[in-house]
């Protein structure tokens, strides 16, 4: 098994980061995890094909993931077919696979992963797990080194919502926040861009003024109650899902569930992974809010990296490169003999199941420790933001289209 | 939702099996094109019910289940069109498990119920239990039209607005007149 290829798949809800161990360890291929219908081009683009799209107006996205879980297997299969055959160009029946899954993945969904991987793609062996970001691999960058690409991003996280909201009321010429985003002109081959101050516009060019929206949208991470039906004493709230505390309070609540003597350790080692954490200003805002929530004598440190969207992939590559990795995999033969129970036994999971004694002791010492809320506090797990790489803040597959350049 | 006609379970089972068999989730031979999805000259036994590029998109557009019954069948009783990609080398039929998963798409709510995680013993943390705590402050009132502070409330529907011009916009277009 060591001589064959190992495919690494950080199978995300927005993008898939994929590569072959030993070939793409520093730079995975990033493709949208979506089937996209373009009315303008009258074409359907599956996964990586979105890069060929010419007309980005009226796009219809069909996403395999719903609320963070893989539910649409028709769409996922289509994306994976293209990924394995055209992008990675491998024969899956001769390869092994390491694939990531969501936290708290449902057991019935986990079984379907097994079915597709062994019965459809016939991988020789595979391991499925949640994102385990190795702290040892963490690329801790000093803030001054963090690259700040401001290319097309309008969104950012405000440090002071009240102050910025009031700044938006000022007339456009003196308004330091408002930006006009000029829509792209696909016929004339001009990409979208932010209008420079005083830049003249063509007749045909249409703009979108982004004012408080620039920071009010990311603000809902910190104040989920900002959205949803208005609540009055007479009317019950009709959007119950948003009656929640923001990310800072959630982090604090999670840490408080850990043993007292370990809490300080976690406050001092909060890491940000995932593309959303790249929103500008997010790290500073989170740090400042956490500082007021943490005990006074606790050090609070939030770590960021240059590519938070790729950290899980880098961790997957590191994990798969270890000699003991092959023992954590389930082979196709084992699956044919025992079905999904082989996977339930061998893969680490939030559910307590009987494990073979051999499997239990071994674990990459990432402090996975407790499941559930414990996972949020994991040294390696992320709490949000990092001001490194401003994204569009919308987190759709388009991030990867940009990556294709 | 499909009409609630009582059908013999045997009939339903037979029809389901036929749909699954019809569904050729197979990996066709090579020579695909990049111009969307085209049907090649597969032998009749391998040909699927996929008809043309628009079909794949239509399949996607029906994600809201408007055109497709929950059981994976269209109103006419034919198997739902799936996305057939031309990628792949072997013309081989997929297993029943895979075909079922592809044809019968379940929403997350249904999957959660099927999973039975609600009934796990209280000590086990699950997706449903790992929720953020309730908010510590009352919601901020933001203008429903422009996003600024919403100091005033609509008398009829209780939506907030910030000034007279936004009130005007609200009354003309958005007021739901629900509550007096």
From TrEMBL, chain A:
Alphabetized Pfam families for the sequence: Actin
Compositionally biased spans, kind Basic and acidic residues: 349-366
Lineage, top-rank taxon, reads Eukaryota
**Cellular location of this protein?**
Cytoplasm
Q: Which SMART domains match?
A: ACTIN (SM00268)
What InterPro entries does the annotation carry?
Actin, ATPase_NBD
**Entry GO terms, CC:** cytoplasm; nucleus
Q: Where is the composition biased (Basic residues)?
A: 389-405
Positions of the UniProt region annotated as Disordered: 346-405
Keyword entries, A-Z: Cytoplasm
Assembly and interaction partners: Component of the SWR1 chromatin remodeling complex.
Similarity comment? Belongs to the actin family. ARP6 subfamily.
Q: What does this protein do?
A: Component of the SWR1 complex which mediates the ATP-dependent exchange of histone H2A for the H2A variant HZT1 leading to transcriptional regulation of selected genes by chromatin remodeling. Involved in chromosome stability.
**The name this protein goes by in its record:** Actin-like protein ARP6
Q: Which organism is it from?
A: Trametes pubescens (White-rot fungus)
Automatic annotation (TrEMBL), chain B:
GO MF annotations for this entry?
zinc ion binding
Q: Which UniProt keywords apply?
A: Metal-binding, Zinc, Zinc-finger
Q: Which InterPro entries did the record assign?
A: Vps71/ZNHIT1, Znf_HIT
Biological process GO terms, please?
Answer: chromatin remodeling
Ranges of biased composition (kind: Basic and acidic residues): 7-27
Iron keyword on record: no
Superkingdom, taxonomy of origin:
Eukaryota
Q: What SUPFAM superfamilies does the entry give?
A: HIT/MYND zinc finger-like
Q: Which PANTHER family match?
A: ZINC FINGER HIT DOMAIN CONTAINING PROTEIN 1
Q: What is this protein called?
A: Zinc finger HIT domain-containing protein 1-like protein
- Record organism: Trametes pubescens
Upper lineage is: Eukaryota, Fungi, Dikarya, Basidiomycota, Agaricomycotina
């Amino acid at each position: 098994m060591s001589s064959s290829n190992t495919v690494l798949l950080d199978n995300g809800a927005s993008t898939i980061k994929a590569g072959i161990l030993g070939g793409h360890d520093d730079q995975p291929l990033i493709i949208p995890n979506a089937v996209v219908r373009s009315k303008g081009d009258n074409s359907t683009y599956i996964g990586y094909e979105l890069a060929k799209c010419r007309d980005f107006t009226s796009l219809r996205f069909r996403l395999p993931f719903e609320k963070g879980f893989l539910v649409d297997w028709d769409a996922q299969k289509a994306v994976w077919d293209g990924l394995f055959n055209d992008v990675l160009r491998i024969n899956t029946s001769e390869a092994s696979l390491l694939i990531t899954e969501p936290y708290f993945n449902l057991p019935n969904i986990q079984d379907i992963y097994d079915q597709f991987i062994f019965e459809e793609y016939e991988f020789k062996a595979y391991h499925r797990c949640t994102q385990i970001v190795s702290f040892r691999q963490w690329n801790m960058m000093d803030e001054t080194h963090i690259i700040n690409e401001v290319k097309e991003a309008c969104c950012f996280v405000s440090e002071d919502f009240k102050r910025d909201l009031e700044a938006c009321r000022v007339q456009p010429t003196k308004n330091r926040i408002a930006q006009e985003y000029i829509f792209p002109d696909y016929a004339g081959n001009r990409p979208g861009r932010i209008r420079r101050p005083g830049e003249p516009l063509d007749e045909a060019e249409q703009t979108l003024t982004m004012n408080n929206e620039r920071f009010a949208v990311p603000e809902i991470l910190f104040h989920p109650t900002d959205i949803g039906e208005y609540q009055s004493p007479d009317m019950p709230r009709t959007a119950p899902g948003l009656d929640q505390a923001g990310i800072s309070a959630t982090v604090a609540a999670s840490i408080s569930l850990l043993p007292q003597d370990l809490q300080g350790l976690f406050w001092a080692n909060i890491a940000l992974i995932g593309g959303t954490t790249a929103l500008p200003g997010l790290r500073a805002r989170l740090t400042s809010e956490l500082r007021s929530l943490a005990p006074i004598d606790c050090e609070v440190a939030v770590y960021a990296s240059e590519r938070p969207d790729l950290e899980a992939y880098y961790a997957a590559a590191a994990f798969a490169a270890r000699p003991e990795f092959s023992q954590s995999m389930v082979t196709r033969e084992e699956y044919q003999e025992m079905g999904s129970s082989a996977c339930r036994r061998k893969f680490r999971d939030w559910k307590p199941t009987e494990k073979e004694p051999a499997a239990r002791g071994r674990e990459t010492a990432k402090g996975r420790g407790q499941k559930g809320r414990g996972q949020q506090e994991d040294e390696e797990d992320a709490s949000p933001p990092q001001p490194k790489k401003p994204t569009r803040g919308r987190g759709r597959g388009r991030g990867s289209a940009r990556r294709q350049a | 939702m499909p009409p609630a006609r009582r059908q013999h379970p045997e009939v339903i089972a037979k029809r389901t099996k036929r749909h699954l068999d019809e569904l050729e989730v197979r990996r066709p031979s090579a020579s695909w094109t990049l111009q969307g999805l085209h049907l090649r000259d597969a032998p009749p036994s391998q040909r699927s019910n996929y008809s043309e590029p628009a079909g794949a998109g239509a399949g996607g557009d029906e994600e809201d289940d408007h055109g497709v019954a929950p059981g994976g069948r269209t109103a006419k009783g034919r198997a739902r069109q799936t996305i057939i990609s031309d990628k792949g080398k072997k013309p081989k039929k997929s297993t029943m498990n895979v075909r079922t998963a592809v044809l019968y798409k379940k929403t997350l709510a249904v999957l959660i119920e099927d999973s039975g995680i609600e009934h796990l013993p209280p000590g086990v943390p699950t997706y449903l239990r790992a929720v953020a705590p309730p908010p510590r402050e009352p919601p901020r009132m933001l203008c429903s039209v422009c996003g600024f502070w919403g100091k005033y409330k609509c008398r009829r529907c209780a939506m907030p607005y910030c000034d007279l011009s936004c009130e005007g916009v609200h009354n003309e277009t958005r007021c739901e007149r629900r509550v007096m």
